[in-house]
Amino acid sequence: EMDRFSFEARRGQKLVVSARARDLIPYISDAVPGWFQATLSLYDASGKELAYRDDFRFDPDPVVYYEIPEDGKYSIEIKDAIYRGREDFVYRITIGETPFITSIFPLGGRANSPTTIDISGWNLPTRRITLGNKDAETGIYPLRVRKENHGSNEVPFAVDALPEILDQESGQAKPGAVRVTLPVIVNGRIERQDDADTFAFEGRAGQQIVAEVMARRLHSPLDSTLQLLGPDGAEVAFNDDSADRGAGLTTHHADSYLSVALPKDGTYQIKLRDTQHRGGHDYAYRLRISPPMPDFALRVVPSSISARAGASAPVTVFALRKDGFGGEIKISLKNAPEGFRLSGDTIPADADKVKLTLTAPPAPTAEPVTIELEGRATLAGKEIARAAVPAEDRMQAFEYRHLVPAEELEVVVSGRADAKGSAPAVKILSDMPVKIPAGGTATIRFATSGGSSASKARLALVDPPDGLTIKKVAPSKNGIEVLLESDASKVQPGLKGNLIVSANAPAAPTSKKNKARAS
Prior knowledge:
Structural class: mainly beta
Number of helices: 1
Helix content: under 10%
Radius of gyration: 29 Å
């Protein structure tokens, strides 16, 4: 199937035709079941194809820019690249002399300092704007312009607290190394094919240095590499791609990152290139060279929870650690409705996630409830808080996992806390934390409202670490005992975290009377 739309156009009109498909239904690239790969074709009245696009750089949503040569009727055609069709292959097409930003420079600026930005694109109202960045916190913000009543597409603009320079401010002609003083963020471009930008700084033996490129994450086509050269010119470190788990829909992590302890005193050089030997006006970047700036971000999975009133549901909080931060992170509810409670609320030092439980209030909710989580940790003697962004844990190609952001964490509470047939209330009697010897076993005692009859419940560990299993469940005087076993070949000593046990009570036998009612 192909959809076509015709329209009248005048000579000299500068039309922008942009499709939104992937942007409407975000996807993780995979072979099965596939996603809508939209293509756009522009035709004149005779049926001659004037323009064709199947993407916009690395964005699969196509954009056509065309200056109309003659008055007349034209048409735009949209289809899937390999002629597939499905109910979720939805799209929106914008056609008109609307503004469209193709690139900006620089890609960011310093907080509380004005930044003058050059804008490139089509049908723009201006080629330069100045942002004040007043009271802006470190982060990435959407930037757009308006022409008459039409808004442009959004492009990302980064704000940081470090000193910033433009590459050309050095006063040195390339290809010589630009001398910089750390910490610094350099805003530059790879202007030509096979070009390389080089920056020199003084370093000391044992000094920890981080070099990080922000380019593809800011919609630049640059696919960077970083090379660190020592005082003798020998390579100390190299990086091409570095995964950013905070970029949930990114399947090609094209930005580079280095963290290195310098081996000796002297002058070091950092070389930045495009790995595909490309370059040009749009190949902009932000290069941070600084000591480590430890920090963290959080993702909470899943983004929607269904829980029985008074019961608990498992939740996983992922720690996205930055620049070597390895400290403990305390998780808490923020402005939560009455009755909600978290258990197991600590991400251990150096751990990248923790599975905890969210206990629902004893009464059901008529509508979904929005829950917010935050994490607190101590950095350089100061406590900082970071919001936990709701997300979904998605798999790509049966191998890679992505934390895809969602707008809200919503909880639906149903049923009643004392509903007949619900699992018995459980209390842990054993000392906490439970210490399990590597290759050994440990017993945990539980008191249950069902007494020893609770031993009939089916118990299972919820997403445990590899090598930890339930070996045996037995009745005890006040409840049950669970014997945990660890496999020394899979479990590393020093592992810390939460173990969550799900208990499912067997269904009560159905009486003949109830059977008759059911029939």
